[in-house]
Amino acid sequence: MHIEKNDINKEAHVSERNLFLKLLEEKTLLADGAIGTELQKQGFPLGSCLEELNITHPEMVKKIHLDYLNAGSDIIQTNSFGGNRSRLKTHGFSDRVVEFNRRSAELAREICPKIFIGGSIGPTGDIIEPLGELSEEAAYDIFAEQAEALAEGGVDIICIETMSALEEAEIAIHAAKKITGLPVIAEMTFRSSRVGPRTEWGVSVSEAIQKLAEFGADVIGANCGQGFKEMSVIIEKMRAITTKPIIAKPNVGIPEWIDGISIYRQTPEMIISDAKKLIDLGVNILGGCCGTGPAHIKIIRELINVKKT
User: Is the dihedral of CA 4, 7, 8, 11 positive or negative?
Assistant: First the structure.
């Protein structure tokens, strides 16, 4: 049974932000799984503009949201990960940011009116100055535009995810908080290395946790990466150095590429042990990223329910 937003006995003046943060103090919330890989299963290849499907194939997007709702998710994220101006430009859709993002939020809200909707925001795909050509001001505008459209569509939370560079994460967090006033989740992506988990830009877990908190994120954590087992190492390090709410959304392993499609081999039963460990480590929100489907989320729902009893 998923947790509805009104499960807390609250006065009318309590804001959506306070409600969300209050729930995190009381319960482990279940996020959803992947949208991109679920859409790939429907025949949309890697590299296609999945955000356009909010307009051209809304029923397909809504079906994925419904599957995660039925699996027990407390938080459903929008189909908007690559919906910023910079990424959409590569598909010729830079002028449709507001349309795609607002509709992504509306679709999720139509299916899930009583639970939290998280507006998914991914990296720009560009490198910020001085190492790259994207200015901080331009990056801010890109994130602000997307966050505002998601808020207009009705999201409850802004979910900034799959970040590798702290500079970009900082700009995204500041833009989302200033433009929307909504709670902000910030997640970075780590991979194993000889010196411990690091992002592609060399950011350590401890540095990420410290900086994301300083930037003002309400929930901090990690997503994507190499799998549930590797994520437990990351979350253990995080929990040792922070009392802030933590989110974990790992992939179900590393994909195999077959005929241009990413295939993930870890079944729901294969993640049980590591999902249990993540719950025991004290994650406040647990879900999945690439390859994670409704069946995986249903298993995690059962584990969370057992933990509560």
Answer: positive
